[in-house]
Specification:
Blueprint (H helix, E strand, L loop, with lengths): L2 H14 L1 H11 L5 E4 L5 H9 L8 E4 L3 E6 L7 H9 L3 H11 L5 E2 L7 E5 L4 E6 L10 E9 L12 E4 L8 E3 L5 E6 L5 E4 L8 E10 L13 E2 L6 H20 L14
Antiparallel strand pairs: 1-10, 2-3, 3-5, 3-6, 4-12, 5-12, 6-11, 6-13, 7-10, 7-12, 8-9, 8-11
Helix pairs in contact: 1-4
Length: 270
């Protein structure tokens, strides 16, 4: 199935749920705007996308105090349906629809998949509370929306691996959005949109297709440039001290090297 066909299915589903997802985003936008929609694609197609995911050993592992997951963005190395699915979310009609729902003045998809693409998490995987990098790779546009499409069949909330949103910051109470099969979550990203993924506690794999959208303007008037910034969970006091120092160090390096001291390899190099 080609991306245009997948995009048509997505658009039809979004349109059917326009009122409910618009209300959810509006009611949450004062802090961290988000909405989610279930049964996004026909189950058979969603399962086909999941079954096309590569094995972890063919992806890049990221493992540290900040995170533990497998990622990939060089999509021509994998089953073509994965690339078609990712770029279906970049269809101009879908971008325009979400732009209208979220009330964003300008909105652009990212053909380079900077920090996007696919991710796989297994038992023990996690993402600590963090802010996404504020800009795209050239620091010309603001990162404003994160699109996460979960496709692991029969995934249950008790498995872990769920999206957590921290509207009051990483030391307060979080909102948990389960990584339910065939669920799309769209979340605003700005200088206060702390989010995380809870540790996976079962021997199962959680697969996700992700995209970022960018804009000419930041979502918050007081937003400033920041690197991807990790913090400890409320019970991780020592880790929090280390990660706070990590933020200061990496932010200082960016003042000297605005586009980073090391060139990112998390891109689709066509």
């Amino acid at each position: 199935m080609k991306r245009e066909e997948i995009a048509e299915l997505i658009l039809n589903k979004l349109d059917k749920e326009k009122n409910s997802i618009g209300e959810l985003y509006k009611n949450s936008s004062a802090k961290i705007g988000y909405f989610y929609i279930d049964n996004l694609l026909p189950d058979e197609l969603a399962k086909k996308i999941y079954n096309s995911f590569p094995s972890p050993d063919s992806m890049k592992m990221r493992k540290s105090l900040r995170e533990y997951k497998y990622i990939a963005a060089q999509m021509d190395q994998y089953d073509p349906i994965l690339e078609e699915c990712i770029y279906a979310f970049q269809d101009a009609r879908i971008v325009s629809f979400i732009q209208d729902i979220c009330g964003i003045e300008s909105l652009y998809p990212d053909k380079y998949l900077y920090a996007g693409g696919i991710s796989l998490m297994a038992k023990g995987s996690f993402l600590n509370p963090h802010l996404d990098n504020s800009h795209e790779k050239d620091r010309a546009k603001w990162r404003v929306l994160n699109l996460l499409y979960y496709i692991s069949p029969n995934w249950e909330g008790c498995f872990g691996g769920n999206l957590e949103i921290w509207p009051e910051g990483p030391q307060k109470k979080q909102i948990t959005i389960d990584s339910t099969f065939n669920r799309l979550v769209v979340m605003a990203t700005h200088g206060a949109s702390w989010h995380s993924v809870s540790p996976i506690v079962v021997d199962e794999k959680r697969a996700c297709v992700s995209n970022y959208y960018f804009s000419d303007q930041s979502l918050k008037a007081d937003d400033t440039f920041h690197v991807t910034s990790f913090r400890g969970r409320p019970e991780q006091n020592f880790r929090d001290v280390i990660l706070r120092a990590d933020i200061l160090l990496r932010q200082s390096i960016r003042k000297i090297f605005p586009k980073g001291a090391v060139k990112t390899d998390h891109l689709y190099k066509k």
